[in-house]
Each structure stands twice: as structure tokens, then as C-alpha cells.
Amino acid sequence: MKTVYHKSDSRGHADHGWLKSKHTFSFAGYQNPERMNFGVLRVLNDDFVQGGMGFGRHPHRDMEIISIPLEGELRHGDNMGNSGIIKNGDIQVMSAGTGIMHSEENATEQPVKFLQIWIIPNKTDVTPRYDQVSIEENSVKNDFQQILSPNADDAGVWIHQDAWFNLAKFDNGFSKEYKINRSGNGVYAFVIKGSAKIGGQVLNERDGFGIWDTESFVLEAIKDSEVLLMEVPMQLPE
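C-alpha cells predicted for Pirin (238 residues):
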């Protein structure tokens, strides 16, 4: 098993007043050659947006973009005619493909906190698409809840990549083995709340931990915890 540990306070930071963002990997003004990606996981931003503010309409291309709200409500709009609100308990995905224009704005006067995640796809120039689903209605305690996969018929949303995301909401002291879905994949664990342990490494809130070259590992909660497990191919597309 190979691992990499990223403490919460080692992340890049951007403060634009209305937007405060922590970058696990190089993004915008934060450039760190040792923190470019974890396999095809290219961006993991921990964003805070002031009430009534947001990202105006802007373009993306050939990227799978996932948003997971943690607090508040985020209003989405795009040039495909999609519009709506996502909130805690939802997951949103966009396949940018040949090109998409979209906006994300705080829908209320209360702050919004959300995770913005970019995955490098396994195919380019796909037809752009948008989807959002509720993951709260299938929420489980002390188990892995799949919220993303490569398969449209599976639980959660799907993307153009051999990736699987799971939420783990574990009570203090609970542990369970996670088995890798696909040979050559690794898992990047991100602690949303609480504290957990993987392979002897203690992870606190907003810490990240990558694991690869293994078929499985055990996740143990050492407080009541919520952990996002992002399983992704470790080899970048050619």
C-alpha cells in the first residue's frame, strides 16, 4: 500500500472577500508542482461563498465537474437551459465535454459551503450534460453510501470515468473495510467532519489521505465522522 497525507492547513488558500477557498491541489493562483492531482482527481476545492454572491457565467471543457453542498443553497444555471437549486443532501454533476457555460450563485443571504471536484474524463468531446440527485433520501449510517459511479443505472450520479465516490457516515469507534472496485484505482479520502483513521494515519477534519497499490483498506471513525471516499484511476488518460 502506498499513501500520501495532506493536512488541512497545508492546502492552498484564496480569499476574494465574497469567496474563500481551500485548494487541495494546484488551482488558479495556488500552484504547487507536488500537489497537481491524485490520479485523475484534478481539483478538490473547499469553497465558502458569501450570501447573494457567486460565480458568474463561465466556460468549461472536457472535464467532469462535481459539486457537493455542505451548507446553504446554491443556484445553478447553464446554456443548456438547466436551472435549479442544490443544497446539502444533493450532488450535482456536469460533463463539460465539447463545452458548457454555467453559473453557480448563492441562492440566499446565508453563506454557502460546498466541495467543488474536477475529474479528468476517460473520453473527450462528449455531448455536455447536467444532472443532480438527492443523496439524503438514501443516506445510511455505518456503511458506505455510493453517490457516484461510471454507470448510469447505479446509485447516485454517473461520470465519464471509472470512478466511484462513497460517503461514510460512521459513529465513533465503527470501522469497515473498503474494497477497491477496479484494479489500478486508488482512493482519496477527505474528512468532512470528525476524525478517522486509515492504515494507522489519524485524519482530522478537512485532512486528505490518498491510498493506492492495494486491494482494500479499513476506515475507522475515532469520532462521529463523515468521510468522502473518491476512488479514481491512478493513471492519467493518454
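The two ends are 25 Å apart (CA to CA).
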